[in-house]
Protein backbone atom coordinates (compact mmCIF):
# COMPACT_ATOMS: atom_id res chain seq x y z
CA UNK A 1 0.00 0.00 0.00
CA UNK A 2 1.19 3.53 -0.76
CA UNK A 3 0.47 6.46 1.53
CA UNK A 4 -2.54 8.57 0.65
CA UNK A 5 -0.94 11.91 -0.18
CA UNK A 6 -2.19 14.57 2.18
CA UNK A 7 -3.41 12.16 4.85
CA UNK A 8 -0.88 12.96 7.57
CA UNK A 9 -2.50 10.67 10.16
CA UNK A 10 0.82 9.04 11.07
CA UNK A 11 2.26 12.53 11.65
CA UNK A 12 -0.59 13.61 13.93
CA UNK A 13 -2.14 10.71 15.86
CA UNK A 14 0.82 8.84 17.39
CA UNK A 15 3.30 10.03 19.95
CA UNK A 16 6.89 10.09 18.75
CA UNK A 17 9.53 9.86 21.46
CA UNK A 18 12.58 10.40 19.26
CA UNK A 19 13.79 13.90 18.39
CA UNK A 20 12.36 15.54 15.29
CA UNK A 21 13.99 18.64 13.78
CA UNK A 22 12.13 21.50 15.43
CA UNK A 23 10.74 19.17 18.12
CA UNK A 24 13.78 17.99 20.10
CA UNK A 25 11.66 16.08 22.63
CA UNK A 26 9.51 14.36 20.02
CA UNK A 27 5.77 14.98 20.02
CA UNK A 28 2.77 13.90 22.07
CA UNK A 29 -0.10 11.93 20.56
CA UNK A 30 -2.64 14.09 18.76
CA UNK A 31 -0.16 16.89 18.05
CA UNK A 32 0.76 17.79 14.48
CA UNK A 33 4.42 17.25 13.72
CA UNK A 34 6.09 20.58 13.02
CA UNK A 35 7.46 19.04 9.80
CA UNK A 36 3.96 18.41 8.41
CA UNK A 37 3.20 21.17 5.91
CA UNK A 38 -0.19 22.77 5.15
CA UNK A 39 -0.90 20.03 2.58
CA UNK A 40 -0.19 17.32 5.20
CA UNK A 41 3.04 16.30 3.50
CA UNK A 42 6.24 15.63 5.47
CA UNK A 43 8.93 18.17 4.68
CA UNK A 44 11.56 15.63 5.82
CA UNK A 45 10.40 12.77 3.60
CA UNK A 46 13.41 11.16 1.92
CA UNK A 47 15.89 13.25 3.92
CA UNK A 48 18.46 11.81 6.35
CA UNK A 49 17.20 13.91 9.27
CA UNK A 50 13.80 12.22 9.14
CA UNK A 51 13.45 10.17 12.36
CA UNK A 52 14.02 6.43 12.05
CA UNK A 53 10.60 5.66 13.52
CA UNK A 54 8.97 7.73 10.78
CA UNK A 55 11.06 6.10 8.06
CA UNK A 56 10.17 2.63 9.32
CA UNK A 57 6.40 3.22 9.44
CA UNK A 58 4.82 1.49 6.47
CA UNK A 59 1.20 2.09 5.56
CA UNK A 60 -1.15 -0.87 5.53
CA UNK A 61 -4.91 -1.21 4.98
CA UNK A 62 -5.57 -2.35 8.57
CA UNK A 63 -3.97 0.76 10.08
CA UNK A 64 -4.70 3.32 7.36
CA UNK A 65 -8.22 2.21 6.46
CA UNK A 66 -9.87 3.73 3.42
CA UNK A 67 -10.06 7.40 4.46
CA UNK A 68 -7.84 9.92 6.23
CA UNK A 69 -10.29 10.08 9.15
CA UNK A 70 -10.31 6.31 9.47
CA UNK A 71 -6.50 6.38 9.62
CA UNK A 72 -6.59 9.03 12.38
CA UNK A 73 -9.15 6.96 14.31
CA UNK A 74 -7.21 3.70 13.93
CA UNK A 75 -3.83 5.17 14.88
CA UNK A 76 -5.39 7.03 17.82
CA UNK A 77 -6.90 3.76 19.07
CA UNK A 78 -3.58 1.92 18.65
CA UNK A 79 -1.81 4.72 20.53
CA UNK A 80 -4.30 4.42 23.41
CA UNK A 81 -3.73 0.65 23.58
CA UNK A 82 0.04 0.96 23.88
Automatic annotation (TrEMBL):
InterPro entries: Puta_zinc/iron-chelating_dom, UPF0153_domain. This is Flagellin N-methylase. The lineage of its organism: Bacteria, Pseudomonadati, Pseudomonadota, Gammaproteobacteria, Vibrionales.
Amino acid sequence: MDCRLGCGACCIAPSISSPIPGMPNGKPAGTRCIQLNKDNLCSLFGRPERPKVCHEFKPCPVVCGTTNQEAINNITELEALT
